[in-house]
Design a protein that fits this description.
Dihydrodipicolinate Reductase, domain 2, alpha/beta, Rossmann fold, 25% strand, 12 helices, homotetramer, 340 residues, 7-stranded mixed β-sheet, 2 domains
Chain lengths: 340, 340, 340, 340
């Protein structure tokens, strides 16, 4: 079977993650990887197995063998790379968010659209087996019409200050995943959003005009309500739960725990915390994510997470920030044009 | 040991519930019960064991043997009965809400205060063993400072239209319990409230200018955020869960289920739904509630659910309605005077 | 509705338990209670509400008003009281075991049979809602033909030495409940039993030629296998679990826990232990047990736990002791006559 | 870092499993694989990545580059291959059981001992994260002295008749894993074993003088009791649970389930079955198993599952068969010499 020749832009944590998954996959051939520095790849599997390791991004755009590009560089570079990749007629997998500017995102996606290349947004959680089963249960109508969609999403540890500074803020950096999840589950667009946010975990966030704790309420076109609760630090691990409540029942996905072991003594029953790191929690989801991208490229299957999905989640993150800043409910219709 | 002589006003569902618990208790003597009609008590334990069964409420106020009155009649009668009981120098246990009017509630509580009688509000859930353990865990600082307080509260079935019509609306009738619970757990007052509500379960609610589904977000004085999600109908039973997330951990109370039995076949693992009726779910809590009232009367212990608690929950229900109607965040300071 | 006039013989822990449940029941009238000493009943509900409190057991047998007798005295007195009750033509509820001697038990049950009075054995666990649901699931054929029946039964604390001395040994005192449970669930008789037992909890048991830990394997007529594991002391509470594995699936009843609360911190997730005391764990079962006895007496419903059930469980306890002592598998056919 | 050059004998299901794990590991280099036929490897990763694929087993023994051999061929060939590998001074990883004959196993292990090569037995479950945590909890003394060790081990589906015929019987083929697990957890040797077994799942087993259902009770040197329950077919999936009960508490490892999702409707709460296939359930354990072997070879760490462990488990399987056939408790001292 034909393998897809791939180039990766960005060899940081998420770039290396995709690189390693691609190296293990039979669907892809990792031909090249680029970053502004590449010393840190010394003695890694990437260095040993990837033919082209370069600091010149043009080596990727100009390589006629490369069919698809994974954009895993810092967010401020995404829009430009997307346009260049599209013009080089290479399919694109792009990490979230597409950009920090709705206008830039719209323009980049417009170039993609005109070029005809395929574009997948990097919302890995859609491919988690638990969340996928929730999605399937909702679609099967087993719980009836969705009334309330709840997402609990709490990180185990705060990111470093230098990361927070350039993160685009909690809504754009972290909640964006949850915005995608509620849209994914609701099968309907948000029409109204209202944010209650606070700085409770660490004063560092305030310094960067950011928050670390939030409750975000949404109303969907189909009438359903949604709510996300976020914290930048959960002492007990990475807390990732979802619930969809409908007129015939409820479906819930709980956390995955380190082991199934329980110890009961006079002092109570003790069991393991949720998995601590997102790479552990979503390890399989990251693999499924690129398998799905490959299926779109090799077999023409529908993309399960499009550029429009990326844009819509960004738009919600943008609206959330306004709602927080202005302490009011935002109608999404205020933020036209909402369509790309 | 001395028993407290009690009279009950109102022999509907909740009045009979208290009557039966009082009949089984060693702390009380149920001397009298009154209602506008009493035929339905024919052949019940109440009829057999209660000396005075009367349609004349004065038989209770004028009975010098009676020390304490349980007010379980319809909400529109509460304020008047509270004032009469207080003036008759009888201690008061009053079902929620105290009244449909903040002003009436304030006035009634003022009479109570001046009379010096004790007054307990009927928020039974504070006495549930699960929720009490959550409260104790929060107070013990085991989970640190509370950041997010979550209440899921969904009824198993919609009430009849005639009930809804006179209920004061979902926030005053149902969410009022959840408002009390978030205050109880937060140990801090709400400063801001924002409601997203909808009519998804049954069009009947809309007819009475009411909703059946809501997400309610609050900000507390101590900085914590709170969120309640409500539905008037959960197909799988009475869904009553709470979670307090703090900087050192999280504490959760789940539902109580009918049995602990699991059946696993080729088709999956099936276990029992949550208990279906509030009388089953909170059976023990209702007993603890009156035990606590007795402890205040007999031993001078502090009242665990005061008139002020009743007023504050009403105020939140009132604010919630405005927030829903005006689609905006309400600052509680808008609604002065907040103190009685 | 007619109430059954009852006398209770024995006012120890279990006698008082039944007395209090009977006092709360609308199906019975507790007319008399007797014990060799009655001082300990001073100031109890029993003293206040029971017309006849006596040290003369004849006051019960000779009372023509009494229709049914609960035998809750020490085991060595059971057989004699059963015969006297039967001859006095009074229905009998008898605590386990019926006696310490198979021959005495057979003789007593023969007198019962000849007299035509009804006789219920005190295996309260058959009336536990969880175990009853397991039973119903097995009978409904949802898990198919039973292949393996497992009972875990561990007490929270060892009994005092003076109790152990007269207990008849662990198999007769404690495992007898589990023997009844496996018979109940299997719907088939044991044909073979093999015991592996040990003295691990406290050397006191060895002093009384007794054990405190055991694994007991059984083969049933219908081919199924059964296994019980026992300990006289589980540090984490009263451990009472059952599992029936069949060709179409498995049904399990877990423990009931004190609360549904979970606390997760950096150190793991902590939840509550199983209920600690048998009176808590089986509180409702004891009520259902006497309700069932009343249904047999008042409405002619079938007895759900007969004298034969009592005898068969004793026979298994007796066989278990031989298996332990002789370190070999016992065929129940060795112990004829097995039928009364 | 130096990689261990490996040859694999046997390219059936388990041989291919190890081959694929070795191909992905950085600790090993898979130099050669052999089987009596190799056509089935056509177009597999094994064919693409393994330099030597041969039907001549001597190509492995004679290859001076190969340091270690994985013996994954049919059980009847193990003993001979072990001896040849040892004499060729190659370290050995051998699948279970070592042989069908205790004498052959002893002789083979004697050759291993004399040669000084390292030998690991293939009990993968010791390396499962859940069971390893149970082991660690027991060793840490958190539950005190072990009193009862319970293993539930039920396969999801019966093997084909041709497999059963050559399997050595259920105890040698399937229970052998559980025998290793109870020894591993008890940290003590079995002194007595008693089996109750039956043919309930499929008459095919009886045809091969085999059973499909069993309860196996053991007594350990340290006084603890153990019990295993087995079935060849659990309709709901691969059921693998363990429990160690001690004087200070209990530790339990439950099954791993397909997802964490629960769906609650009017009909109850439905969740996923245990993982169905042993390759799914123990996927990570198989990787840890070879990592542990590598650590012994590369860094001189202790072997965590020795030849003696393999022999002891076989001896228990052998004793179990006698106990079943002769319907009696077997003292392990009857089966001398027990030490190799």
């Amino acid at each position: 079977m034909r393998r897809i020749n791939v180039g990766i832009i960005g060899a940081g944590r998420i770039g290396q993650l995709h690189a390693n998954n691609i190296l293990k996959s039979k669907l892809f051939e990792l031909r090249a990887i680029t970053d502004i520095t590449i010393e840190h790849l010394q003695n890694t599997d990437i260095q040993k197995q990837v033919p082209i390791i370069t600091t010149n991004v043009d080596d990727i755009f100009n390589d006629s063998e490369i069919e698809a590009i994974f954009i895993c560089s810092s967010t401020d570079t995404h829009a430009d790379f997307i346009k260049r990749a599209a013009r080089a007629r290479k399919h694109i997998f792009c990490e979230k968010p597409i950009s920090f500017s709705l206008e830039q995102t719209r323009k980049a996606l417009k170039v993609v659209e005109e070029s005809g290349v395929k574009f997948q947004s990097g919302f890995n959680r859609r491919f988690d087996k638990n969340f996928k089963k929730v999605f399937d249960t909702v679609r099967s109508n087993d719980i009836g019409e969705p009334h309330i969609i709840k997402v609990t999403s709490r990180d185990p540890e705060i990111p470093p200050a230098e990361y927070v500074e350039k993160s685009g803020g909690m809504f754009m950096d972290m909640t964006i995943h949850d915005f995608d999840m509620v849209r994914f589950l609701a099968g309907s667009e948000v029409v109204e959003i209202s944010v209650s946010a606070a700085n409770l975990v660490d004063p560092m966030f305030e310094k960067y005009d950011d928050v670390d704790t939030a409750i975000i309420t949404m109303r969907f076109e189909n009438g359903a309500l949604g709510v996300i609760d976020n914290s930048r630090r959960a002492a007990y691990g990475y807390d990732q739960r979802i619930e969809v409540f409908g007129d015939k029942g409820v479906v819930q996905a709980g956390n995955e725990h380190l082991t199934s072991v329980k110890v009961a003594t006079h002092d109570g029953v003790v069991s393991d915390n949720p998995k601590y790191f997102f790479l552990d929690r979503y390890q399989d989801a990251y693999v499924e994510e690129i398998n799905s991208f490959a299926a779109a490229l090799l077999h023409g299957e529908a993309l399960l997470c499009t550029g429009d999905d990326g844009y819509k989640a960004e738009l919600l993150a943008y609206a959330a920030r306004i709602s927080w800043k202005e302490s009011r409910t935002i109608k999404m219709s205020e933020l036209e044009p909402v369509n790309i």
